[in-house]
Amino acid sequence: MSENLNQDYNASNIQALEGLEAVQKRPGMYIGSTDEKGLHHLVWEVIDNSIDEHLAGHCDTIDVKVFSDNSVSVTDNGRGIPIEMHEKLQKSALEVVMTVLHAGGKFDKDTYKVSGGLHGVGISVVNALSKSLTARVSRNGNIYQQTYVKGIPQTQVEIVGTSERTGTEIIFTPDDAIFETSDYNIDTLVQRFKELSFLNKGLTINLTDERNVLKNGEFKKYEFHSKGGLMEFVKYLDEGRASISHDPIYIIGSKEGVEVEVAVNYNSGYKENIYSFVNNIRTNDGGTHVQGFRRALSREFKKYGDQNGFFKKIKMEIAGEDYREGMTAVVSVKVPEPQFKGQTKGELGNSEITAIVSQIAGDHLAIFLEENPKISKIIIDKIILAATARNAARKARELVQRKNILTSGGLPGKLSDCSSRDASISELYLVEGDSAGGTAKQGRDRVFQAILPLRGKILNVEKALEHKIYENEEIKTMFLALGVSIEEIDGEKILNILKLRYHKVIIMTDADVDGSHIATLILTFFFRYMKELIENGHIYIANPPLYQLKKGNQTPVYCWSDKQRDEMILQMGGSIDDKSVKVQRYKGLGEMNAEQLWETTMNPETRTLKRVTINDALEADRVFSMLMGDEVPPRRAFIEENAAYANVDI
Ligand code: 0RA
Q1: At residue 419, does pLDDT exceed 90?
Q2: Has residue 184 been placed in a domain?
């Protein structure tokens, strides 16, 4: 080896080592965090590389396995990471890809790599954060392998076998000295792989969870594959809503190296749902691609409506949002060098994308409108209805708001307020019915606990027109009691929670089917109209007991599940069927007296509250519309799968 090469070799080793150390010192800079989210990020990073192979047209199957020690393998049937000698660095390209930061993209410039955001930092980052990793490449008839510990090669790239096929296998064990948790969440993996299969039609992702052994001795397996891509994605998202456009409108095209794919479905609801992706990564805050799509939608529908005289009769202006009411759309673009903006990097910034998407989507929409006059007229009618309803809603909302000002701090009569004015310690119990409300009022600590009884089933906001919502007594009462208002700024509705009067809002309903239905209705309202309260962690669900057990004169014991009840009966010296222990099943909150309610459900020292969180906004949206929307079969299937009270009450 010449002196020159030797120098390069050493220099490259030092460079690799410095890179790995930087990642280990500040993992958050590379993968966002070292909590559960960061842990999962390792899998996203590895699978992204395999998906790049798919996008380049060389891979159609990816197998992911989670082993019982939470190590993970990702295997693809792509070309395999090159193992040839890297001329300048004098080592195998495989070793360079695995140990040098940002090396991956340098070998192959044709595919879409992500330069911003958190994905696309390179597989070497996963290597640096793994206490062990094995890379195995099938290529040129051989199987090549190299192993690493915390990113440092333990072996040369060795031939360990022969193979007719090509592909890459990465097996890694996250470094538990770096990550706060080592447990992979199967729901998170399933959700993301499902999404990836919709976004990359034709790709198959197989997932095996070796931590979950079935009764027949086999591991739990999942398969994700979508033939229809985004077309199927919107159908899946809108499963619970009645479609008014039959099949989704499908748009696909490319321009200046940017690929654009959009699917649009109009349903009988009133919400706008646009989900957007850039290079398979969700852009929660939209960006120039979404802007381009919206622009095309408004422009083409307006043109079509004007040309056919459909808008003649109506007096008011049609706003952009009217074209999108009851619309679910997925917008996916593949951009060679995306720039992500905003605090969470959830927004696409490249300005050139607006015009590209607007043109491609516009051309397709114009053709769709010409070719489908019947469906187009149904959508136009819906747009007119949206504009009309928007005006009515504004008036109704203003009325509620004005009342808010008029009463100036005047609170609803049904509210039994607490005496504290410190929102951070104050709690509002939303209680089902007047009688339970009465018990709660007696049982509470009136210093910091307020009670608002709600009468029966509150309005299903998923199905109601917006102005009906502001006219609904229970909903108006909740706005007033909470001190929250909706304000319109530049045509955009903004929830003002600055004057929120309670930092804990606790939904307390009976532990039966009706009770959980009411809780779901209330949650639907919060999810659609006061999402910030959920996002900021203010919404809770009370957890009343299911049973009271009593033996002779002993103090009663409460149980929250059948299992707990059976165990407790035995502990108390009874047996399940002689029933010497008296078992009382609480069907309603009203069956408890004030003292019992305080002790089991309201006393901060002894109660358990469930905080409502949104793990995946997209899935939450889908489930809410399914539970509360028009379509019955998917709802039934969901309830059958998830019902908690099925064997008690139905
Ligand atoms: C660089 C160049 C080529 C492929 C890859 C990287 C590659 C990386 C990963 C990571 C996981 N699976 C992968 N598959 C491929 C192109 C190789 C060629 O031209 O033959």
Answers
A1: yes
A2: yes
